[in-house]
Amino acid sequence: MVGSMASSSSLLTSPEQKNSPSINAVLGNDDLVTEILLRVPPKAVLRFKLVSKKWLSIISKTSFATRHTLLNPHTVSALLLRVTLFFKERPTNKYVSLDVDGRSLAYIPHDFLDFDPTNNPGCIHISQSCTGLLLCSTCSWDRPERFQPINYIFNPTTRQFGMLPPPPDNGLYFDSMQLVFDPSESSCYRVVCTQFFTSELKIYVYSSETKDLKLCVSQENFEFLSLNFTNGVSWNDAVHWISRMGDGLSFLLDKECLETFPRPPLPENWQEQNFRYFGESGGHLHFIGVLEGNQNPDDLNKGIVSPDMSHDHITDQSIVVYTMERGSSKWFVKYCLHMKASVMAYPEITEDEGLAASPFSAARFLSFIDGDKDERPLLVMQIPGEIISYCFKDKTFKKILRLPFKQAICHAFNHCETLSCV
Question: Any idea where the domains of the chain sit in the sequence?
Fold first, then answer.
């Protein structure tokens, strides 16, 4: 892309092209130039600011950024990895491009998150990602125990950031914050903030449009104690939380209320330790777990669960991906990955002798990226010493990153480029 952009710029500035009546007609029509630039990928558009003062003026307008955000698709193009090797050590960030050939790893500059000059370098970390925007917070390293973090919305493509207001003056911090941003619906974003104290739940919503933090829910004797509010997922104009047993709760942004969420059709022998991942991708919601036996999506959707038929030292297991499509309220099993097939395709998964009999048990599922007919659904997971991906379409494994320590703590954030204003 960089090479193509450089060649485009040279054509635009060459004497022959400058004297071309057709080129002059195009470049002299601001409306036509705008329509062309609206269809150029975000990073390329930012480079085109250097072509001329007129193009700089067009691209710098908020209205241009808004239209560009609404017009362009926001498919996941990369992963941002946060890797911590030791407790209380500042993590390193890595960028993984999800290109056609597999995984292209690049080390992000150490000052990637030093966007706020009022903070000390290295004190900001990523908490969450949503359609090209990042929810970031200041870290508590070398800070007092009751340190109140500062929260930001950061656009890594444009390097713009906005600071979120602190919690209300009630002596409580936010237990969780969930960024909600759907550029196909609106250029504005919202942040759903929860406080839970002595069985009382409060939910606040911050809107980038009004710049206000509004109390929407205040519920005493809250009963959903099994929910993990740090594991919220934005989907379908709501924020969803789910327990390891599949019990869910949703906060509906348009109605500003809570309602229960449908439970996946889990088998009777499902246990908390079977749960692995809950997230959104491609407009779909996903609940992923590990079941004993060689499972099949068609059988599971009929309620038929295959027993563990293994007779050797390796446990028979399957990774099961439950999916709920947008506009639906029903779960179904979309993908299954059988462990023995995984061992044959990627023998390194059993390198750790202590986990050879049950390698999926130690795997941490970092991200699931669903795809349409032209894209490849990917499951990104951490096994001892490595981060790998599995493509359900090609049935292939790829190594993303070799970790220097097996005990490293890794988080993955889906990323796409956007010109969205913050």
Answer: 2-60, 113-261
Q: Report how far apart, in Å, the C-alpha atoms of 260 and of each of 21, 208, 228, 237, 252 are.
A: 64, 27, 15, 15, 10
Nearest to residue 261, comparing CAs of 224, 298, 216?
224
The model's pLDDT over 348-398, given as tens digits with 9 standing for 90+, comes to 776 665 555 566 777 899 999 986 655 678 999 998 888 888 988 888 888
Structure tokens at 188: 């504005």
Give residue 102's pLDDT band: very low, low, confident or very high (50, 70, 90).
very low
CA atoms within 13 A on the CB side of 264: 27
How crowded is the C-beta side of 359, counted as CA atoms within 13 Å? 24
Token pair belonging to 164: 């979120």
Q: What CA–CA distance (Å, rounded) separates 121 from 107?
A: 17
φ and ψ at 116, to 5 degrees? -100, 110
- What pLDDT does residue 10 have? 43
Mean pLDDT of 56-65: 93
Q: Are strands 176-180 and 190-197 parallel, antiparallel or unpaired?
A: antiparallel
Task: Evaluate if residue 1 carries a pLDDT over 70.
Answer: no
3-state helix, strand and coil shares in percent for the chain, rounded to the nearest 5: 20, 35, 45
Rounded Cα distance between 92 and 255, Å, is 40
What is the value of pTM for the model shown? 0.86
- φ and ψ of 8, to 5 deg: -65, -40
Which residues are 401's β-sheet partners? 387
- Calculate ∠ Cα 418-420-421, nearest 5°: 145
Alpha carbons 266 and 243: distance in angstroms, whole number: 13
Class of domain 113-261: mainly beta
The two tokens of residue 155 are 């656009």
Half-sphere exposure of 344 (CA within 13 A, CB side): 6
